[in-house]
């Protein structure tokens, strides 16, 4: 693996044998030209033969007398607008005279082993220098006296390149950054489908694919969080690409705030992909000596289909984005009281749930919303993080001790970014609420958003949370965020810095996380934002798992978890078995199907287990035992999608151990079919020459048979076929 530099031709070739990324410095303009990104190619002395130049009619050209210098027809690394390129730019800077024209020219480069951290931002990392190399290309605008550093990291053994950009004002005049993308790449053709994840509350991460068309197509958020609506991920796949074969380019932004992922197909079929902070309502004041760092974009190339792309993302995010003591540990089987009690609980009820959890083999009891202030519904008390002694006479620390004595760990819910009216915090510091002077303040879920762009607000909330955590034995925190940002105005910032509020807000959230995980490294954090409104790589840097969706219905979760798996590992997906009829859609599904869906995630329960029958308790004991036995495989194995819930009535997926000695297959059939035909599932990822037993059946099967012929599914057995049925197959090498 190497970053190859042709200093004479000023060409850069990043390659590890799996992938190649090639660009150069244009001789006359000093700007960067993109040449190739894709499957690895052999290095050669020069790639000048890849340059595309031709005089085109009606072109405008940068250089006098040079009729092939139109940037409109040149693929670029980090383009600007206003000097012959009419496509959307990767950056926009307003100088002292109001001009937005820039001219960043090549100055130097620097190569380092490993991967430098980003200041105050989450990012993937290395533990050994040999895992990656990083190229920094330095460009300079002489008029603005502004430096631009483009950073490229390539991993040694992964089909991954990460990119980010940093702007530094070296001049004596203030300028304003109106747009700053993390990555831009101009691909040579438009024969792709755009794959992305969209949705809404309770139906997050639904997979959508559409053919590219001439013009602009995009995903974005302007809500203050990455959002339920669009996940900060998109992929370009060839039209013939499947889950198991074909070419895919993935783009995933390690960021939790407003973002945009945009594709622009020009009239000549060039596909420009860019991703970064949403420029809408963004303006960053860059005073003399100040700098701005963009988030990281993780680019993955696969020639082995969507599953190949996903496996690369899963391993990278599980091993080199998630941090801390829980990164490589199996997660505890938990019971959360939310759907069991909502706000209607006391210490006696919580202890009854914890006692039953111990009896059933569960390891963690989580107390959700309602333990603080006068919180009996969702209209009050956020910000007053003081125990309600009527519900909990011995406080959180007393309850935690009692649960800990049972041999069960204790977890607690917080929503630290919000405040309710009528609280001590709201009355003492109304200026700490994001709101526009003289305008009505909107509310969501009867709550308001604290101004986390202010360091004193972050510090205040840290001290409140610390006062609870310091005196109680707490093993897990569920960090919620139940509304988007409106009236994004900070009373602490000058008028010309109000465009910084959204970004400064999420930096404040990151800072609070960082302080808490530094002081309490043993606590397992789970992020949540009304379910999946902030289910993104940025959060995984601080919280190794996320509540995937507030929708716990097993049938709906098939789509939600299937879509999320395009980017996120199973170890990141909070998945619970809940009560029936389901509290979100009213559907009644069998317990075994609810469990078979929840197995493929972090796994837990969210129902009143004290009301289970004796038979149901025995069934749950066996489910918990099974998951404990298989959770290491589920957490670390390679995940393959087999049948899509977006394509039909059936869903199937599987996890294969890294040594291919064991696998677990989940199969789900939503609606029953009378007198159905025989069906098979073709598996993936097995060793073709190994022999496997299925559910300890005495007949063994070669891996190639299971992948090319498949597992024969049962037809309807005696009695009527049932809706919402499922089965789990366990494969073990003979």
TrEMBL record:
The keyword Hydrolase applies. InterPro entries: Aldolase_TIM, Alpga-gal_N_sf, Alpha-glycosidase_related, GH, Glyco_hydro_36, Glyco_hydro_36_C, Glyco_hydro_36_N, Glyco_hydro_b. Residues 30-287 form the Glycosyl hydrolase family 36 N-terminal domain. Pfam families: Glyco_hydro_36C (PF16874), Glyco_hydro_36N (PF16875), Melibiase (PF02065). Residues 650-731 form the Glycosyl hydrolase family 36 C-terminal domain. It catalyses: Hydrolysis of terminal, non-reducing alpha-D-galactose residues in alpha-D-galactosides, including galactose oligosaccharides, galactomannans and galactolipids. Keywords: Glycosidase, Hydrolase. CDD domains: GH36. It comes from the Bacteria. Transmembrane segments: none annotated. SUPFAM superfamilies: (Trans)glycosidases (SSF51445). Its EC number is 3.2.1.22. Belongs to the glycosyl hydrolase. This is Alpha-galactosidase. The lineage of its organism: Bacteria, Bacillati, Bacillota, Bacilli, Bacillales.
């Amino acid at each position: 693996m190497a970053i190859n530099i042709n200093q004479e031709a000023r060409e850069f070739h990043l390659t590890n044998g799996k992938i190649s990324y090639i660009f150069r410095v244009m001789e006359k303009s000093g700007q960067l030209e993109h040449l190739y990104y894709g499957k690895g190619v052999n290095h050669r002395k020069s790639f000048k033969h890849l340059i595309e130049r031709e005089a085109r009619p009606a072109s405008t050209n940068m250089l006098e007398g040079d009729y092939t210098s139109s940037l409109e027809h040149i693929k670029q690394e980090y383009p600007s607008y206003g000097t012959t390129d009419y496509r959307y730019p990767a950056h926009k800077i307003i100088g002292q005279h109001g001009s937005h024209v820039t001219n960043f020219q090549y100055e130097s480069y620097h190569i380092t082993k490993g991967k430098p951290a980003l200041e105050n931002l989450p990012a993937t990392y290395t533990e050994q220098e040999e895992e990656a190399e990083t190229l920094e290309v330095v460009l300079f605008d002489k008029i603005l006296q502004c430096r631009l550093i483009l950073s490229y990291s390539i991993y040694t053994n992964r089909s991954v390149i990460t990119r980010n950009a940093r702007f530094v004002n070296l001049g004596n005049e203030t300028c304003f950054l109106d747009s700053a993308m993390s990555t831009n790449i101009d691909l040579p053709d438009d024969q792709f489908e755009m794959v992305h994840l969209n949705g809404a509350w309770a139906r997050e991460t639904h997979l959508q694919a559409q053919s590219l068309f001439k013009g602009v197509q995009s995903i974005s958020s302007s809500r203050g969080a990455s959002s339920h609506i669009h996940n900060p991920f998109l992929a370009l796949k060839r039209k013939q690409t499947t889950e198991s074969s074909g070419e895919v380019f993935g783009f995933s932004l390690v960021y939790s705030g407003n973002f945009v992922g945009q594709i622009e197909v020009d009239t000549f079929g060039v596909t420009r992909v860019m991703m970064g902070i949403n420029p809408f309502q963004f303006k960053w004041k860059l005073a003399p000596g100040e700098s701005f760092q963009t988030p990281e974009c993780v680019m993955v190339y696969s020639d082995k289909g969507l599953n190949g792309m996903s496996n690369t993302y899963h391993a990278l995010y599980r091993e080199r984005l998630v941090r801390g003591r829980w990164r490589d540990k199996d997660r505890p089987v938990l019971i959360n009281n939310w759907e069991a009690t909502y706000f209607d609980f006391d210490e006696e009820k919580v202890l009854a749930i914890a006692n039953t959890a111990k009896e059933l083999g569960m390891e963690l009891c989580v107390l959700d919303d309602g333990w603080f202030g006068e919180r009996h519904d969702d209209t009050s008390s956020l910000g007053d993080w003081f125990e309600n002694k009527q519900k909990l006479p011995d406080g959180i620390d007393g309850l935690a001790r009692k649960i800990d004595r049972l041999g069960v760990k204790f977890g607690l819910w917080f929503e630290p970014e919000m405040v309710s009216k009528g609280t001590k915090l709201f009355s003492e510091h109304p200026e700490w609420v994001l709101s526009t002077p003289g305008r009505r303040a909107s509310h969501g879920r009867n709550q308001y958003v604290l101004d986390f762009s202010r360091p004193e607000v972050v510090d205040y909330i840290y001290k409140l949370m610390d006062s609870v955590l310091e005196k109680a034995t707490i093993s897990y925190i569920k960090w919620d965020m139940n509304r988007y940002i409106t009236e994004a105005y900070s009373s602490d910032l000058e008028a010309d810095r109000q465009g910084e509020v959204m970004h400064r807000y999420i930096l404040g959230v990151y800072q609070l996380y960082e302080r808490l995980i530094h002081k309490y490294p043993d606590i397992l954090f789970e992020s949540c934002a009304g379910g999946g409104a902030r289910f993104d790589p940025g959060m995984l840097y601080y919280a190794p798992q996320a509540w995937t969706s507030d929708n716990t219905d097993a049938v709906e979760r098939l789509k939600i978890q299937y879509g999320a798996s395009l980017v996120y590992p199973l170890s990141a997906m909070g998945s619970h078995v809940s009560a029936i009829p389901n509290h979100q859609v009213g559907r009644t599904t069998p317990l075994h199907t609810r469990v078979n869906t929840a197995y493929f995630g972090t796994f837990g329960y969210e129902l009143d287990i004290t009301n289970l029958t004796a038979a149901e308790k025995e069934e749950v004991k066996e489910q918990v035992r099974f998951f404990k036995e298989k959770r290491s495989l589920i957490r670390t194995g390679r995940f393959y999608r087999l049948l899509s819930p977006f394509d039909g009535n059936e869903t199937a997926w599987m996890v294969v151990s890294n040594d291919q000695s064991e696998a677990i297959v989940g199969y789900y059939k939503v609606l029953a079919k009378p007198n159905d035909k025989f069906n098979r599932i073709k598996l993936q990822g097995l060793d073709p020459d190994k022999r496997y037993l299925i559910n300890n059946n005495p007949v063994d099967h070669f891996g190639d048979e299971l992948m090319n012929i498949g597992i024969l599914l049962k037809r309807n057995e005696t009695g009527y076929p049932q809706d919402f049925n499922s089965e789990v197959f366990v494969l073990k090498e003979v």
